[in-house]
Specification:
This protein is an alpha+beta fold. The chain is 30% helix and 18% strand. Helix 3 packs antiparallel against helix 5. The longest helix has 20 residues.
């Protein structure tokens, strides 16, 4: 994810760029002879040239929870659309879309689709576990079980010993984490992966495409 702004002093243009899916927010507002931008509206509202005014369109956004792309609750404020750039210069404002999700025909059968989802899920979880510092020296590798797990055996299945996993899955009756339980961020990611894998195992015969 990313959101950045580039000032071109030679052409006197300001270019705002937001990541493809809009994970990183980027708000902007024209004020006086300049442009204010920030990742949060409150940073823009802290400038003396702005006023915290909510007009009718902003009230609609608040009360309907619509979250219209490109709009902000505050009057005069806008949010840069995902996958877009905005160039502001002497000639005015110019929006440009640099990326969009391609529309492709789904041709996989049920088995191939489930396998693709499983591979993508495992890759996404593994990527989210990457950190600047080690999460924990004894964090076990993620292993998705082939049989559905309930909440009472979820923590026990993450043991580093295969024998411990086998015995714990059949004997554990409570969900209290033991000493080898991974730290909270890794444990949460593992729970989501196990829940999704269990859902796929349970509903795979009923999937229709």
């Amino acid at each position: 994810m990313f959101a950045y702004v580039v000032w071109d002093g030679r052409h006197r243009t300001l270019t705002l760029v937001r990541d493809r899916l809009g994970i990183k927010p980027l708000f902007y507002q024209l004020a006086g002879d300049g442009t204010l931008f920030a990742s949060e509206p409150k940073a823009i509202l802290a400038h003396p040239d702005t006023r915290p005014v909510v007009e009718l369109d902003g009230l609609r956004e608040l009360f309907t929870f619509s979250g219209t792309p490109g709009h902000a609750v505050w009057a005069g404020m806008h949010e840069l659309l995902p996958g877009h750039t905005l160039t502001i210069g002497p000639s005015g404002l110019r929006h440009r879309r640099y990326w969009s999700l391609p529309d492709q025909l789904h041709t996989d059968n049920a088995d191939a689709a489930v396998e693709s989802v499983r591979v993508l899920l495992e890759d996404a979880v593994a990527g989210q576990l990457v950190a600047d510092v080690p999460l924990k020296a004894t964090t076990p590798a993620l292993s998705v079980p082939t049989t559905p797990l309930n909440s009472s055996t979820r923590f026990a299945s993450c043991s580093t010993s295969p024998a411990t996993r086998s015995s714990a899955s059949s004997t554990t009756t409570h969900s209290t984490p033991h000493a080898s339980t991974p730290p909270r961020p890794a444990r949460a990611a593992m729970e989501r992966a196990l829940d999704t894998a269990t859902w796929l195992d349970h509903y795979q015969p009923t999937l229709r495409y």
